Structure to design on (160 residues):
């Protein structure tokens, strides 16, 4: 390479270095990333939408499961079915229902019916279609009571 070619190469590299330095400084002064400060409640809501459950809930569920297994004769039909004592001292049966990533809404509805959470697949399917909630079902583990209102089930499973 001749002397003039080397000078152009050095000048070109110098100009590129200056451009990179200036753009770097501009990104420091005015970053493109927008930071959002979430409250604790918003963080918990986002986590619940992703299917995360608080540690306290898991401990309570396990404790209730152990207690119900001790009280029963050991014949537990569904290992994820528990009984919860509500305010009026009547027991409500609930199920830990898990939605798997990539699972279709029809498969989810079939399992809801099979586990006794809903008692009418057709009317629940129509309600899901009416609300256009099928594509918004969020995978994760949920605590659902048997005989719950269909609207409430959809709210829980969609996180809305």
């Amino acid at each position: 390479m001749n002397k003039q070619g080397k000078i152009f190469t050095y000048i070109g590299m110098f100009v590129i270095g200056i451009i990179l330095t200036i753009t770097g400084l501009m990104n420091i002064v005015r970053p493109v990333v927008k930071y959002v400060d979430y409250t604790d409640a918003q963080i918990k809501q986002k986590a619940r939408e992703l299917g995360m459950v608080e540690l306290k809930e898991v401990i309570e569920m396990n404790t209730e499961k152990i207690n119900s297994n001790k009280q029963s004769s050991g014949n537990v039909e569904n290992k994820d079915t528990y009984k919860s004592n509500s305010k009026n001292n009547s027991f409500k049966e609930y199920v830990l229902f898990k939605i798997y990533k990539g699972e279709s809404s029809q498969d989810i509805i079939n399992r809801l019916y099979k586990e006794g959470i809903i008692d009418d697949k057709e009317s629940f399917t129509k309600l899901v279609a009416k609300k256009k909630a099928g594509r918004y079902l969020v995978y994760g583990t949920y605590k659902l009571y048997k005989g719950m209102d269909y609207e409430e089930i959809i709210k829980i499973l969609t996180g809305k």
In short: The first strand starts at residue 81 and ends at 85. Confidence is low (pLDDT under 50) at residues 73-79, 85-90. The radius of gyration is 28 Å.
